[in-house]
Amino acid sequence: MRLFSGRISKKTILLFSCLFLLLVQACYAADYDQIFSDANDAMGSGDLPAAIAILQKVKPDKGDDSGAFVRSRMQIARLQFALKDMNAASASANEVLALYPDNSEALNFIASVKKEQKPRYVVFLEDCLRFLPQLLKGAVMTITLVVCIIVISPLGGLLIALGRISTFKPVSGLCWFFIWLFRGTPLLLQLFFIYYGLPSLGITFKPFTAAILGLGLNYSAYLGEIIRGGIQSIEHGQMEAAKAIGMSYWQAMRRVIIPQTYKRLMPPIGNEFIALIKDTALVSTIAMVELMRSADQMFNAYFNVTALILAAFIYLLFTTIFTFIFEKIEIRAGIYENR
Amino acid sequence: MKTANQPLLSLKGITKRFGALTAVNGVDLDVCPGEIVVIIGPSGSGKSTLLRSVNFLEEIEEGSITFEGNEIGYVKSKHGRRHLDAPAKICELRSEIGMVFQHFNLFPHMTVLGNVMEGPLTVQKKSPEAAREIALDMLAKVGLSDKRDVYPATLSGGQKQRVAIARALAMRPKLMLFDEPTSALDPELIGEVFDTIRSLGKEGMTMIIVTHQMGFAKEMADRVIFMEKGSFVAQGTPEDFFSNQMEHDRIQSFLNRIM
Question: Residue B123: helix, strand or coil by DSSP?
Answer without folding.
Answer: helix
